[in-house]
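Allow me, if you will, to draw on your knowledge of protein folds for a short while. A protein sequence and the structure tokens that stand for its backbone fold form the material at issue. I would ask you to consider whether the tokens describe a fold that such a sequence might reasonably adopt. Thank you for your consideration; the sequence and its tokens are set out here:
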Amino acid sequence: MSTEVRTSERAQLPTDAPTVLPAQSDGGLSRGALNTFDLLFMVMAAAAPMAVVVGTMPLAFALGNGIGVPGTFAFVIVGMLLFAVGYVRIIPYVRNAGAFYAYISASFGRAFGLGAAYVAAVSYFALSCSTIATLAFFCGDLFERVSGLNTRWEAWAALSILLLSALAHRRITLAATLLAVALIAEITLLGLLDIAVIRAHGSQFFSLRLFTPSSIFVPGIGIAAIYAFNGIIGIEGTAIYQEETIDSKRTIPKATYLAVLAIGAFYVVTGWCLVVGLDNDAQISTIAARDPGHFVLDQFSRYLGSWAANTLSVLVVSSAFAASLALFNNSARYVFALARDGVLPKLLARTHAKHQSPYVASALLTGLLITVLGPCALAGFDPLTNISTALVGVGSVGLMTLLAVTALGIPVYFGRQGIWGLSYTIAPGVGGAMIAIATVLAVKNYASITGVSSVAINRLPIWLVVIAALGICQAVWLFKHKPHIFGQIGSNRVE
């Protein structure tokens, strides 16, 4: 007899589900503001496909398994789909803008959930900060090429923070619209490259040689897998916005599956085209390592002309800004969720009367961006080689760890309720194991993510352990001294 749960049974909350608290009658998030495609564009923008293809994929070719990179991306997509199968199953049972925070609380206990929440907020913030530093560098570079004037990156960083803060303050639909425009533009341009390569090479493109085990499972696959998972980070953000979507029980699953499949297919096909378009795939690692920054740009110039290469430079900037905004919004909603549950000061749970945005949490994070980037500017740090490399690894490893723990926790949660089946326990368990292996490889090859040999930078992930430990200690203290607040950790928030 099948152990899958029938639809009528899935609709019921388990008896030991997280504490259910009524939604706030006022001061809440903007309910029903986002439809499936709004959400899809937001989480795909966080993944920054243009930045991944231009900045990350060449490094995967150079340092990873060469022509096996497209196959590695396909392998990673399988792992993320298995994760998504369980992820969308748990969403109706645990409703909280904290996502990882709430799911880990429900699976492994509130203390571990609180530790995970702080890691998630810091990881999203670190990636947003890193992306802003990268954005500032490319803005200055683009402006100099267009005008001939040399400007300081700090000015572009300040402008970016100002614009980001203004958009985060407004209603979420404005950010969703802007992110959609940026995403459509970058995917259109990359799609034109794919079409040009396919037209130029014809039937040669359809060879599946790149996807054979002998091409994928060779030395360097571990590093390629790290970059592949980094390219997918952001897809899990669908659940963060479940309180702000239309009919979240339908919208979240559709957006999650569409995001994984769309971004996955896009990476696989584009990576495939980059290999075929080179005409010398046996030397792809050497060619990519020689000049990774211009590896993709050169193919644009060859197949589409100089106009496409110039447009690419502009869209790399818009892609970076879109990613920083999406990641910033994710971090703000974690801070909001923690404050609403009473773990952080209640002031941070306030939402704007008109825009229903977590504007106080956003203001706090804006201040932190200035606090981080300001001293870096005064110290003369380079935005790429110092700031971005230091923060991107921390954020990536933090989120990969949370993906793995969440995926492995889903079978624990449903198993405790006596709910078994392929989509409830087996699929997320296998996906979690795959992500966990990639996370271990990421930590083991951490210097490959940062691209630097600095001991101080490459030991930064230790701080994630410290942050998680502080969250667990706070939860223990709350359990002893403020049990009513402890009971709200990871609580359900229902309409």
User: Anything to note?
Assistant: Residues 26-494 form a domain with the Amino acid/polyamine transporter I fold (CATH 1.20.1740.10).
